Amino acid sequence: MTEMVYGAVPVQSGEPILPKWWRTLDKWTMSSVLMLFVLGLLLGLAASVPLAERNGFDNFHYVQRQAVFGGVALVAMVLTSMMSPTLVRRLAIIGFAFAFVALAFLPIFGTDFGKGAVRWYSLGFASLQPSEFLKPGFVVVAAWMIASSQQINGPPGTLISFGLCLSVVLMLVMQPDFGQASLTLFGWGVMYFVAGAPMLLLVGMAGAVVLGGILAYSNSEHFARRIDGFLSPDVDPTTQLGYATNAIREGGLFGVGVGEGQVKWSLPDAHTDFIVAVAAEEYGLVLVMVLIGLYATVVVRSLFRLMRERDTFVRLAGTGLVCIFGVQAMINMGVAVRLLPAKGMTLPFVSYGGSSLIATGIAMGMLLAFTRARPQGEIADYLRGSGRG
Questions:
Q1: Residue 5 lies in a domain
Q2: What sign has the CA pseudo-torsion 218, 220, 225, 227?
Q3: What Cα–Cα distance (Å) separates residue 101 from each residue in 98, 107, 178?
């Protein structure tokens, strides 16, 4: 407990890998992630039963699959968190290359599963969503390029990473998947901001995003329908937003009771996009606040540790990963309470979905690797030394 509060114990020379990993790990972040996964299984027991019955499966079919996918995700997270930043970067480059190619071939070999957007490959026993695996790889690759551009005689990495970002965003918009496209652009923008981007340029980028939204609204019926539904003063009680809003209202502070909620029988995406509505109805505001607290712990702890990091690449990559993680959670919960337009985005580690769980596990493993305590002076020491010089 002392280590969790006051930081990791200094690493001893020649220390075996497991004790070294445990001593240097951010245990608050790891504990929060494990609690999110357990809560995801708990909510899955309630939210996925109606879907299993409709599809002719055993009542806990989807919970069992989530447990299997979650186990793979946790193993991937632990193994990745043991890697050095250099090894994480190499893994991210390879993963990003494969995911980028897979994303490019989606229009030819992909499927929409009747949802109107070609985002998945059907593998028979499961489906694969390349964009989920693309995000962590892109963040690390872009951070590496931006950090390289700050070196003396370094390459134009910032410009190259921006071109790569636009290519990814364009492919995602063509699916269409405006939610993942926004997250990708946001992740790059956060890293560029931390790297010292001119404020005027950031304002210009924000204006370009607004212009892009206007064009998307004018040319995409799918996008316009969601925006119109969000802006409408009245909520149709027979829509997903209507069911979710009513469920949250019915749940109150302590909920209607375990298994007593009704929204899971009406929402087709109760186990994914609107799982917060199930949590609010059956367990009340208390559980929702616990979820928010766990996500906030991961984000705040990681950012504080990254603020002390001297390595530019590690600082940028870690910031991009944790900001995307936090914003995705915020968007999912914001949609459920009608603070944001519907996005079709999962709640990390809580919503059902194999691609989302495993990709998020890899991303959190990368983040834990970047936030591990290493034998280096903190950035404050470096700045004080520069001042004396």
A1: no
A2: negative
A3: 5, 12, 19
User: Following CA atoms 338, 339, 340, 342 in sequence, which dihedral angle do they give, to the nearest 10 degrees?
Assistant: -10
What pLDDT score was predicted for residue 6? 46
Q: How many domains does the chain have?
A: 1
**Spatial CA neighbour of 344 closest among 278, 274, 289:** 274
Contact of 241 with 229, CB cutoff 8 Å: yes
Q: How far apart are the first and last CA of the chain?
A: 39
Q: Give the Cα separation of 251 and 27 in Å (integer).
A: 33
Residue 234 placed within a domain: yes
Longest CA–CA span in the chain (Å) reads 72
**Structural domain includes residue 15:** no
Segment 226-240, tens digit of pLDDT? 777 666 666 666 667
Give the phi and the psi of residue 198 in degrees, each rounded to 5.
-60, 135
Say what the pLDDT of residue 12 is: 53
Joined tokens for residue 139: 């963040």
Question: Tell me, what DSSP letter sits at residue 121?
Answer: E
Mapping DSSP onto H, E and C, the string for 251-302 reads HCCCCCCCCCCCHHHCCCCCCCCCHHHHHHHHHHHHHHHHHHHHHHHHHHHH
294: nearest Cα among 260, 319, 255, 326: 326
Written as one letter, the residue type at 218 is S
Domain interval for residue 176:
32-374
